[in-house]
Design a protein that fits this description.
Elements (H helix, E strand, L loop, with lengths): L4 H15 L5 H16 L3 E8 L6 E9 L9 E4 L4 H10 L1 E4 L12 H5 L4 E11 L2 E11 L7 H21 L21 E3 L24 H6 L1
Antiparallel strand pairs: 1-2, 1-6, 2-3, 4-5, 5-6, 5-7
Helix pairs in contact: 1-2, 1-5
Length: 226
């Protein structure tokens, strides 16, 4: 599988139109998800934001879409206190790969209330960081049949997520990732973006090919208080 150059170019175009005020936030989010569908050919894609401190993290889903359907903006939360093993894996590795979600012991807490009702058989998640803090995540789901995610597909999603984060920090504005429950202020030029490398989120950022590791700045929570 070739590198997702065409998809990354599409994301650049979507970001340019959105930050120039030529498309709405929901239009941009829907277009972003369509790009992910185009590359990974999965059944459902959702966009998430982290909130809270290490040890008490939460994830907020603010946009999702089933292939061929309209964007859904109803919010839902996942609490680390309820899904601790899943959060630990995602925060440690920057990705969470589950080929058989129904049988995954880390996902059993969400089996009856989410996986089974939505027929989710496989999941592939990729997250990114800002200033060493878990910040955003994209979740890809496969329904109806189990899917073995390929190494190239994992790399593609990581590249797409890194591109989205770069666009956000370049624009100095994370409004595309904001929601009524988690409104955010514009991002300062000194803010840094990190992808979680092999050492994981908690151990500090490690740059990898195709991912940005820029200079450090004020922490996100410090900006919120300023």
């Amino acid at each position: 599988m070739k590198a997702p150059r065409a998809e990354l170019a599409l994301l650049q175009e979507i970001g340019a139109l959105f930050y120039a005020g030529k498309t709405s936030r929901d239009e941009a989010r829907s277009a972003v998800i369509d790009v992910i569908f185009r590359r990974l050919q999965c059944a459902r894609v959702s966009l998430w934001r982290f909130d809270g401190e290490p040890g008490a993290l939460r994830l907020l889903c603010f946009a999702s879409k089933v292939a061929g359907q309209s964007l859904v903006t109803a919010e839902r939360w996942l609490q680390a206190s309820e899904y601790g093993a899943y959060f630990d894996g995602l925060v440690r590795d920057g990705t969470y790969i589950s080929n058989d979600a129904m049988a995954d012991p880390n996902l059993q807490p969400m089996r009856d209330n989410y996986l089974a009702p939505n027929d989710v058989r496989s999941m592939l998640d990729a997250a990114f960081m800002v200033n060493g803090r878990a910040y955003g995540m994209v979740c890809c789901e496969q329904t109806r049949a189990i899917r073995a995610w390929r190494t190239a597909e994992v790399a593609d999603l990581r590249a797409i997520v890194a591109k989205l984060a770069m666009l956000m920090t370049s624009a100095q504005d994370d409004v595309l990732w904001a929601s009524p429950s988690l409104p955010m202020r514009p991002i300062a030029q000194t803010d840094s973006l990190h992808d979680a490398g092999p050492s994981g989120f908690g151990a500090g950022a490690t740059s990898r090919p195709g991912f940005l590791d820029s200079g450090s700045g004020r922490r996100l929570d410090e900006r919120r208080k300023s």
